[in-house]
Amino acid sequence: AVGPDLIPALWAPIPPAIHPRHADINDATTRWAHAYKVGSPQLRGRLVTQDIGRFAARILPRGDERVITLLSDFVLWLFGVDDGHCEEGMLGRRPGELTATLHGLLRIAQQPQTPLLVDDPLACALRDLSRRIDAHATPAQAARWIDALREYFWSVTWEAHHRAAGTIPSLNDYTLMRLYDGATTVVLPLLEMGHGYALDADERDHPAVRAAGEMASFVITWDNDLLSHHKEHRSGDYYLNVIRILQHETGCTTGQALTTAVAQRDRVMRLFLRLRTHLQAQAGPQLRQYLDSLGHFVRASQDWGISSLRYTTPDDPAPLPSTLCSQPTDDSDDPLDIPAIDQWWSLLPVRPRETVSACITP
Ligand code: 3E9
Ligand code: MG
Ligand code: MG
Ligand code: MG
Ligand code: MG
Ligand code: MG
Question: What is the value of ipTM here, to two decimals?
Fold first, then answer.
């Protein structure tokens, strides 16, 4: 039996996988972070111990090594922004000023040669990332990456408002914010680039395909909230995390909030798997690869989340599970009581002979 504040083993129905070059990719990212001086020396010193290259190698286990290295550098850079600017820095409490900085970064992502923020290491590192994105992406995919960066920036600005005011959003608002502020959507274009294809825009933006990506974001960020709760809680800083949201909204104990959050992610995971199976059956090779990659992204976050020094914090060990498990805690097909995502449950036919609203062929 586990105590109420131990994180239970999370259901992991998707098999693990990792690119064989993970050690080299991890080393390359360490060198890149030092070369570009990403984050303060102290933050960078922590980030390079967190196995971010192995995380990227799990997300694209059979992808192009150059794109995996790009993804790895980019995820480290995102932590430079998320930890350095938003959670530990001054800008995280100044949404207006944060917006100005983030707009400068977006301009650099779009046009790396723009002479803005010329002495800023995060900006210089982003110039490099942007040029490498251009080398692997079509112009439309690169634009998609910048749009995803914009939606991530927009959500951390919302988060900064709550941090400045010391307020806790409702579960519904938090769910909406969390679809973007976990920076999951900025990874999606790299899933395509990692296998050298660009999804047809109408296929990628089909409501059911988009929803599958959102469901993956939900599971990834709920898992992050469970596995990072110790790190975030012990920091003494303001933090948003579904455990805190549920306790604030319902007055429940930490143990009850953990049980609820696990049930929520299990229910969305089941829906994700059902929707994915349904879409796979009618998908062409690229969409099949994309849906497969979404699954790798979910599983990668679990394998990395239970093992990275970022979350295990050995100096003050987190009560994390050392394994994952083979059974969900919740097997209901009913929608969660969260209006922002209610529509996900209307994409699949309830009975086999009903109209297939998720059909992706016109
Ligand atoms: C935000 O959540 C974490 C991202 C900004 C970091 C970059 C990671 C990815 C793009 C992959 C998705 C991974 C996740 C969500 C870890 P939060 O709670 O600030 O992350 P933390 O690691 O501090 O718990
Ligand atoms: Mg964050
Ligand atoms: Mg964080
Ligand atoms: Mg977290
Ligand atoms: Mg393909
Ligand atoms: Mg695969």
Answer: 0.87
